[in-house]
Amino acid sequence: MSNYALLFPSKWLAAADLNNEDRIVQIKQIIPSEEVGQSKDKRPIVYYQGVEKGMVLNKTNAKRIAKLYGADTDKWIGKFITLYPSECDFGDETVPCLRVRQDAPRVDADDEDLDEEELAAFEAVRKRKAEKKAKQTAF
Fold it and tell me: Which of 66-74's residues contact partners 24+ apart within 8 Å by CB, and which partners?
């Protein structure tokens, strides 16, 4: 079943776009400041290879990427991260959000120039391996 939030599409990448699954993405571009939301606040936007929508970068996710790849955002280009759907507090509500995993995904050096189809295949293999490992450790 589809997430109801997909009935109300967002200009930006959202937790619902991940369909409750982790997604390995390769950073393509970072726009330092773009107007977002009704208040038109200026926020950085991260674009990924093969992903149409950009992701509004918050401080939590920026810190996680910096921990993985350093503070210089120019050096983040071409690097892989794993996004996952989560929840966070926003005012007095708990809302869906996107988060960056604290560990870098394992990607071979030859995989750094994956196109969208190759990246999807890579993600499928990674998911199958994780499911197999989970079954083995379930006993």
Answer: 67/102, 68/102, 68/103, 68/104, 69/104, 73/30
pLDDT at 10: 82
- Whether 54 and 61 have beta carbons less than 8 Å apart is answered as no
Any idea which residue has 């690097």 for tokens? 79
* Rg of the chain over all Cα atoms, to the nearest angstrom: 16
Virtual torsion, Cα 86, 16, 14, 69, nearest 10 deg: 50
* Measured distance CA(109)–CA(75) in Å, rounded: 16
Residue with tokens 């939030």: 5
* DSSP class per residue in 2-62: --GGGGS--SS--GGGGTTS-EEEEEEEEEEEEEETTTTEEEEEEEETT-SS-EEPPHHHH
Residue 15 has pLDDT above 70, yes or no: yes
CB 34 within 8 Å of CB 43: yes
Q: pTM here?
A: 0.71
Domain ranges of the chain: 4-137
